[in-house]
Structure formats: C-alpha cells, structure tokens
DNA sequence: CTTTCATATGTAATATATTTCATATGAATA
DNA sequence: TATTCATATGAAATATATTACATATGAAAG
C-alpha cells in the first residue's frame, strides 16, 4: 500500500499545537487554567516568573486561541478557551508517565 | 481545592515529547515510520530534504528513543521504537482537524 | 484629574533549534 | 585493498524562541 503522508494543512496546524505545548511554562499554564480561571498576577505567583514573561506567554496562547481573557476590575482573568486541547495534554502526560516508569526498570 | 501542579519530572518529560513532535519533519517521519520501516535515503526522497538534515533529525529521534535503526546491507533502516507515541500523535491530529473544521464556519 | 495598580507590549539580549556544508565512517563491491 | 555507496557527524551559518528591561495603557481610587 502507498504511504500516507499527513497533508500540509493538518501538519501546519499540528505544528502550531505542538509548539504551544512544547514550552513548559505554557504547558503548566494550560494545566492550571483547566482547574480555574486565574489572573496574570496569580499565574505570576504560582509559576514564580516575571510578570512580563507571563504576559508574553499568555499573549501567545491567546493568539492561538487556546485561552481568552476577561477583565474584572483591575485584573485580567484568563480561562481555557479550547477544552479539546486537554485531550492532547492528558495523552502527553500519560505518555510521559509511561516513559518515566519505564526508566525505573530498563536502562 | 488546592491547585494541582504538574510535577517537574513529568513536566520535563512532557517537554521532551512535545519538543520532538513540534517539528513537522520529525512529526511526518514518525507518521511514516508507523507505516513501515524506511531507510535514510527513502525518507530523504519522500520528505524532499537534504540527506544531512534527515540524518540529524533521525539522530534526535534516536536520542529520545522514539526510533531505532538496523543496518541492512549499505542502508540503515529506521523503525518506530515507541508505539505509544502514536497515541499522542493521533490525538494531536484529531485536535488539528477539529480546529481546521472550526475555522471553516466561525471566524 | 493625577496617582496607583495590574497588565501589556516593544525592543534588545540571550538561548535554542534547524539547516547547510564539508568531511568522516563503515560496509559492500570491483 | 581501493573505490563507491549510504549514512553520520562536526561546526558554522541562520532562523526561531524566550527572557529581561523599560515603558505604555487603561481602569479604579483618591
């Protein structure tokens, strides 16, 4: 049978998703925002980063429509905008766990 | 309830996996190697890249134990070494497809 | 209406990833 | 055993991502 290639649009979109998830700050952010909406300063505290770094990463997540923000008073609260991404995250965590367990026996 | 953070080992491992999949060449390679083992020159042709670029990417996939190689005559055949990664790839493709379909209606 | 607080953004500095080019290696063949 | 073929690898060139610093913005409080 002939080889099936992933077509370029699907590959592009996959690349975007993977790029977003390949940074641990963003990965953790999405994991946190799954649990509840959080303001920038809350995220800054929990993640122990500079405010600017947090805002920049959130800007990327917004650009890719993975999160959205709503203003409440002075704060800007972020929330997960695409729950479907959680399936990818969870599958990744499962895989990561599987790899880590594997390392304890083999090699 | 308190916030659940992804612990650092799991986060590190997830980062590695996502980094590997965030490059479209590697993503496509893994997709191809799922279907059958292929030599470097076959991959070079199918992916339409320089041989050196292909070898470098394969070296990374080897390093992360996602593929392994076996020599046959002059050629070096690569095969998928971690079928579990396919779950992540497939989940990603599903998500990418979902996003692309979404774009056709909304926005 | 000016000061403060929370956040965003531009730009430069730095780090990381990818590609390219040149060359090395190692098995097969002449 | 010299040559060729397939692949790997080192190092430089280039591209991309991340962080840090300075400053802008906009809502709320005084």
UniProtKB/TrEMBL annotation, chains A, B:
What residue stretches are annotated with the HTH arsR-type domain? Answer: 6-100
PROSITE patterns referenced in this protein's UniProt entry, alphabetically: HTH_ARSR_2 (PS50987)
Recite the UniProt keywords alphabetically. Answer: DNA-binding, Transcription, Transcription regulation
Q: Which Pfam families match?
A: HTH_5
Q: Which domain of life is it from?
A: Bacteria
Keyword Disulfide bond (UniProt): no
The record's section on InterPro entries has: ArsR-like_HTH, HTH_ArsR_DNA-bd_dom, Metal_resp_trans_reg, WH-like_DNA-bd_sf, WH_DNA-bd_sf
Which NCBIfam families does the record match to this protein?
Answer: HTH_metalloreg (NF033788)
Q: What is this protein called?
A: Helix-turn-helix transcriptional regulator
């Amino acid at each position: 049978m002939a080889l099936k290639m992933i077509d370029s649009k699907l590959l592009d979109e996959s690349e975007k998703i993977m790029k977003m998830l390949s940074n641990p700050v963003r990965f953790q952010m999405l994991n946190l925002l799954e649990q509840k909406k959080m303001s920038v300063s809350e995220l800054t505290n929990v993640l122990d980063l500079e405010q600017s770094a947090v805002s920049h990463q959130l800007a990327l997540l917004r650009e890719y429509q993975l999160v959205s923000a709503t203003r409440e008073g002075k704060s800007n609260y972020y929330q997960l905008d695409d729950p479907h991404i959680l399936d990818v995250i969870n599958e990744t965590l499962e895989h990561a766990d599987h790899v880590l367990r594997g390392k304890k026996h083999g090699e």
